[in-house]
Design a protein that fits this description.
mainly beta; Methylamine Dehydrogenase, Chain H; four-stranded antiparallel sheet; 34 strands; globular; binds zinc ion
Amino acid sequence: MAIRFHRSMILACAATFFGCPASAEQIEAWRVFVADHSEPVVRAIDLRDGDEIERFALTGAARLHRSQSGRMVYAVQRDANRVQMIGTGIALGDHGDHGDITIGAPRLLKATLAGQKPVHLVERDGMAAAFFDDEGIARLVAEHAALEGTGEPQEIASRAPHHGVAIPFGVHMLMTRPHPSDPGALPVGLDLFGPDGAPAIDYAPCPDLHGEAQSGNLVALACETGLLVVAPGQARPEIRHLPYAAGLPEGKTTKLVGGTGLRYFLGNFAPRVLVLIDPMQEQENFRLVELPTRAVDFASHPAKPRFALAFTEDGHLHRIDVVAGRIDRSVRLTGLYSMDGHWSDPRPRIAVAGPRIVVSDPLAGQLHVVDTETFETMGSIAVAGEPFSIVAVGGAGETH
Ligand code: ZN
Ligand code: ZN
């Protein structure tokens, strides 16, 4: 980590012979937010010492998403019919020649999104959209408004209740179109809404749509037939269909994550196979990565763009070299976690905190911390209950 001096300080310093004042203080801080599998509680934990900073009582058990800025955590409570929001207390600022960090207490915000059965939530550029399946309605909230306690959530309705997703895309909005006759079926395509929330201005078919992710300025959604890739266009976002290559074996993606720094998507494909997708290639967009056992969770690595991560049933965390398209390191972290049984059973989840990887181990009540480079365990943090859904926020910067 390079220590950078504030430009005005260097100038002031050069103008005097009395030596330089101490540089602005360089601080690094990382926090993980961990939701219990079945209890309505989220814990904020300081990664330096593993101490619990704060514990938040929610309405129901939550799945967590972090905002791109890291200032906010969204706690989606499917069975309690609401999304609550937690200010992480950490804000990173760009001062051009250096980064700033401000650190305060995490806090549960007043803002909530209420509605029937929220499942998928996507935040993009400071705007979050939660989709409420049993209403077929997306509710949107701006991160800054929620943090400041101002503003009312906006609503956009799809044609009918369904298991859908809505994605803010600049002034536009992407939202799934439900199956016309079977409300229990997956969506059949993607509608593009204009800035005024008026009727859809574009539509792209995508049979059995499930799974969405962002990478750079792109959004991808998984279909039975391939991927929809949404990119910024001249007047409106451009949606194109990237079909699965003819030579691929039987399989399809239903969960996607997106690369940071490198534009790629990583998805499930078959029980022991992940797929790396390069949306910008003319051909050979799809590369398969075989795993030793079935995947429990997978993630991109925001701080080390070359690597992605997968956790498998045999208790191992794997580092995937996304350039080479294969696993290059593995480490055993937990006992066995079978993918048999209910989809919502407690199983490990991955979060990345700068150079460190944190894996929740709900059955052991632990968080395991792994160094990305050595790929060895740095230690474990005991957490009461069943630590499950996890996100990390933080970074390094000056305080002044
Ligand atoms: Zn500054
Ligand atoms: Zn889903």
